[in-house]
Specification:
The structure is a single chain. This protein has 7 helices and 14 strands. The chain is α+β, with helices and mostly antiparallel strands. It has 2 domains: about 90 residues, no CATH class; about 190 residues, Sandwich (Immunoglobulin-like). The protein is elongated. The termini are far apart.
Length: about 325
């Protein structure tokens, strides 16, 4: 009796398989070619999504766009990727499910990642000093950069500046620490109104650091120009030198400025133009498409330059003796 039931079951299975081959797979709606795949809260939700649409034309268009990508794009780069065995097996299983190469699965994962998360550095507004009664013109102006946080909250963010001439000659031997405009001015509020304001060095230290909430912006002062034509880099210590720090005097010419922001252990750079010969109203940080980005200064080159300067200094001391 049992053998008869097993034989009947096998006969029905064979008949069902034959009908399925004749009918073919169920037709599914095609996923639009110009539509990005959604995000999923669980693997089961993603599996259900993959079973609900036909992706043959979608992946075919992706492969065609990859093949037609112009030379010199980032897709010409080759990277070695070390994966654990389970990670590689998971990639291969996903690629087999979709009928595409593993590289396309990786690209799709990268495209689904949240972008534009970090620090943005852009030209900021010019802040004019009060008008001088004798000349009826502003006593000077501050040039600012605007720093925006497009990622999660970051704390104790620092900023530095480097200054270069038009022929990429660096003006100073080190980065200038910039001052965050949101920090309180380093004056002792307990001093008498008639007395000369006393410097509060604890408040001065607050100018080196800034905290950023998500999507928050802060301005950082880069330089100050006075009505007498002199121009100076602006740092928290400038208050000690009557706003004219002798270490950071800038020539009255077109300068290139490199901003360096360190946030959450990551370094962000941006290059700008500052015309130190301009009037107070035109004294501002600008973007200039004609400016060729200067090469980043690596730690190795920094150490080499420092050692070279030590050698020069030692030689000069020897000649003086």
């Amino acid at each position: 009796m049992k053998r008869k039931m097993d034989a009947e079951r096998e006969r029905r299975r064979a008949a069902a398989a034959r009908r399925a081959r004749e009918v073919g797979p169920p037709s599914l709606p095609e996923w639009p070619l110009d539509r990005l795949r959604p995000r999923f809260s669980s693997e089961a939700e993603e599996v259900q999504f993959l079973r609900s649409y036909d992706f043959s034309k979608y992946w075919e268009s992706k492969r065609a766009s990859d093949e037609s990508a112009p030379e010199g794009t980032e897709r010409d780069l080759v990277y070695r990727l070390r994966l654990a065995k389970r990670e590689m097996e998971a990639l291969q299983v996903r690629a087999r499910e979709l009928g595409v190469p593993v590289s396309i699965v990786l690209r799709d994962l990268i495209q689904a990642m949240p972008r534009d998360r970090g620090i943005h550095i852009d030209p900021g507004a010019t802040a004019l000093l009060p008008v001088e009664p004798s000349t009826n013109t502003p006593a000077g102006a501050f040039a600012h950069l605007s720093i925006a946080n497009t990622g999660p909250a970051v704390f104790r963010v620092r900023c530095w500046m480097r200054f270069f001439t038009r022929d990429n000659k660096e003006l100073f031997t080190r980065e200038m620490p910039a001052r965050w405009a949101s920090a309180p001015e380093p004056f002792n509020s307990s001093a008498s109104c008639d007395a000369v304001p006393a410097i509060d060095f604890w408040k001065m230290s607050l100018g080196y650091l800034a905290d950023f909430a998500p999507r928050e912006e802060h301005a950082v002062a880069v330089a100050i120009k006075f009505s007498d034509g002199t121009c100076w880099g602006w740092t928290p210590e400038s208050y000690v030198h009557q706003w004219r720090h002798p270490d950071w005097r800038l020539p009255s010419e077109l300068l290139r400025v490199r901003a360096h922001v360190m946030a959450d252990g990551r370094d962000f750079y941006a290059d700008f133009v500052l015309d130190a010969s301009a009037s107070s109203a035109e004294f501002k940080i600008r973007l200039d498409r004609m400016v060729v980005p200067m090469p980043r200064i690596s730690a190795e080159s920094e150490v080499g330059e420092f050692e070279r300067r030590l050698t020069v200094i030692a030689g000069e001391k020897g000649r003086i003796r």
